[in-house]
Amino acid sequence: MHSFSRVSAVLSAVSGIKEKVPSLTETQIVWISVPILFMLFSVQRFGTDKVGYSFAPIISVWFVLIAGIGIYNIVVYEITILRAFNPMHILYYFGRNGKEAWISLGGAILCVTGTEGMYADLGHFNITAIQISFNGVLFPSVALCYMGQAAYLRKFPENVADTFYRSLPAPMFWPTFTVAILSAIIASQAMLSGAFAILSKALSLGCFPRVRVIHTSKHHQGQVYIPEVNFLMGLASVIITITFRTTTEIGNAYGICVVTVFSITTHLMTIVMLLVWKKNIIFILLFYVVFSSIEWIYLSSILSKFIQGGYLPFCFALVLMALMVTWHYVHVMKYWYELDHIVPIDEVTALLEKHNVQRIPGVGILYSELVQGIPPVFLRLVEKIPSVHSIFLFMSIKHLPIPHVAPVERFVFRQVGPREHRMFRCVARYGYSDGVEDSGQFARFLAERLKMFIEDENAFAVEKPENEDTDSPSGVSEGQTKPRKSARSVHSEEVIEPPMNNHVGRISSYSLQTIEEEKQLIDAEMKRGVVYLMGSANVIAGPESPTLKVVVVDYVYSFLRRNLAEGHKVLSIPKDQLLKVGITYEI
After folding, report:
1. K+ potassium transporter integral membrane domain: from which residue to which, for each copy (predicted)?
2. Amino acid 571: pLDDT
3. Confidence of residue 459 (pLDDT cuts 50, 70, 90)
4. How far is it, in rounded angstroms, from Cα 487 to Cα 459?
5. Measured between alpha carbons, how far is 214 from 212 in angstroms, rounded to an integer?
6. CB within 8 Å of 352: residues ≥ 6 apart
7. Which residues contact 295 (CB under 8 A, 6 or more apart)?
8. Average pLDDT of 147-152?
9. By three-state DSSP, how is residue 27 classified?
10. What's the distance, Cα to Cα, between the start and end of the chain in Å?
């Protein structure tokens, strides 16, 4: 839908030049529009804030212009057009024209296109700002503009094809033409920003293939830029412009998009009113019947233009939905497969002994989406290469819905298995404005936080007999089932009681020595090198899967996975420090 709106707006604005240069052909107008579209998509990387602040004066001038021109046309040509505010004229219109009046509704709906953009803009501006701008500026200006065109057509009905530019006073043509093109670019930019915000939400829900999302604002989470999507939508817009050439069929396609969005919004709003707001059922039924009836009337009218370009948005929607459903289905099945095949934490010692795993120098970091248990890729690693680095971390990257995560809160550690294994679970948390550090900085910061965790753990842990479990300072370590004892319950030989005016426990000389040894070991192993391990999962359909599942998993999903950004590129991991562990999931 966003591609149709941008193409329609730009083509409509550019086509006005034919009023001054009648010799221009449709092909020439198309090739004038293409560079404008290219410029539109090129500025998206600067973000909504910068583009909005740059163009806000232009859009303000545009609304003043169309309102002023509308008032001029009303006064000069037909002031009695104001009688159209009487809703009885709707009945008179249908009485005079019958079926033709119903068909014309498909064109009338184009007068309110763009209002669906308000819902997308909620991720960029607050509700009050949208309400004030719509009711105080946009609606009055657009209403005056259309009433002025209607007044002009009362005198010159033969100019219905290009009413807006023909109704302009001669001295106002070039200023209005220039501002119209700039306003079309701005309006299209707002719709693009909404598309990015919606797709980023779909991505976070696992409903869209993995792409790079760039947050362009430090204050608003919804202001994002997606380079891959921007390129594809730009390409689609140029292709549509060159193929359709005029706004007639593009308008039909856009009209179907808009009315469909209205109808979907009404149905979703009804569900929210019913399940979330819990409004009175009478009020909900009244809302649904009134709005859905109006929308279905308009939809039935615009669907009559299905063959004249209206089919295109359905084709786009079917392709996009098929890709999203495919990705989400396989993503969920893959996640459940990993959950079903995880190795419990309390079996990690038996796993290492069973495969006679040797500890090798260095630090190993295994990336996984799972935050509990041992992922299946680790089992594959020790089966094929029975060796694990001296310090080993199971790393998960999590993005939080806040701008920044303080560096001291970036990493959260937990002990995995007995302490002598030196295996840890780590969750790295990032805000939507935080960038992932390069590998060197990431490793240094990780080492510092790990040493702090070791220090805290030894400071607050309890020395227990050899047959008892140990735990981490943050509560209970993974796999532990026994409750932890208070530090005050240990024997006085192990911990020196603090003075009455000091509630911070002091560390025994034995614990201090242990801490220093552990910290020195971490530094030494970091110097020996860090190896980043990532599972390269090949997902295939099971042997008895139906044909449709085989096509979806083995072909469509595999194609998407091969042609999208790989995880190590997103995390900025150098190739010479990356080790991929291949594994096949049969779902």
Report:
1. 9-349
2. 66
3. low
4. 10
5. 6
6. 382, 388, 421
7. 259, 262, 263, 266
8. 92
9. helix
10. 34
- Could you tell me which residues come within 8 angstroms of residue 286 by beta carbon, excluding any fewer than 6 positions away? none
Predicted confidence band of residue 391 (pLDDT cuts 50, 70, 90): very high
Identity (one letter) of the amino acid at 133? S
Q: With contact defined as beta carbons under 8 Å apart, do 109 and 258 qualify?
A: yes
In SS3 terms, 191-236 reads as HHHHHHHHHHHHHHCCCCCCCCCEECCCCCCCCEECHHHHHHHHHH
Residues in the chain: 587
Domain layout of the chain by residue ranges = 2-201+214-326, 341-461+506-586
Q: Are 364 and 389 in contact (CB under 8 A)?
A: yes
Q: Residue 53 is which amino acid?
A: Y
Segment of 41-55, 133-147, 174-188, 198-212 carrying the highest mean pLDDT: 133-147
Strand 411-415 to 387-399 pairing: unpaired
From residue 577, alpha-carbon distances to 89, 251, 532, 562, 568 in Å are 74, 53, 6, 21, 10
- CATH class of the domain whose range is 2-201+214-326: mainly alpha
Q: Show the beta-strand stretches assigned E in 112-217.
A: 214-215
Inter-residue contact 283 to 290 (CB < 8 Å): no
CA 4 → CA 118, 196, 305, 584, distances in Å? 17, 16, 15, 41
Highest mean pLDDT: which range of 225-239, 297-311, 386-400: 386-400
In contact, 345 and 479? CB cutoff 8 Å: yes
Judged by DSSP in three states, 566 sits in: coil
Positive or negative, the CA dihedral 68, 73, 76, 81 is negative
pLDDT of residue 188: 65
Count CA within 13 A, CB hemisphere, residue 201: 10
DSSP codes joined into one string, 299-353 = HHHHGGGIIIIIHHHHHHHHHHHHHHHHHHHHHHHHHHHHHHTPBPGGGHHHHHH
Position 424: which residue type?
Answer: F
Residues sharing a CB contact under 8 Å with residue 491, sequence separation 6 or more, in sequence order? none
Contact call for residues 10 and 203 (beta carbons, < 8 A): no
With 0.85 as the threshold, say if the pTM is over it. no
Name the nearest CA neighbour of 542 among 532, 531, 550, 533: 550
Q: What is the mean pLDDT of the chain?
A: 78
Contact (Cβ atoms closer than 8 angstroms) between residue 409 and residue 429? yes
Rank 3-12, 14-23, 310-319, 470-479 by mean pLDDT and report only the highest. Answer: 310-319
**Three-class SS of 75-113:** HHHCHHHHHHHCCHHHHHHHHHHCHHHHHHHHHHHHHHC
Q: Which residues contact 13 (CB under 8 A, 6 or more apart)?
A: 177, 180, 181, 183, 184
Instruction: Give the integer Cα–Cα distance in Å for 130 and 443.
Output: 45
Give the residue among 146, 69, 71, 85 at the shortest CA–CA distance from 112. 146
- The encoded tokens of residue 109 equal 């709906």
Highest-confidence segment of 111-125, 194-208, 495-509, 526-540: 526-540
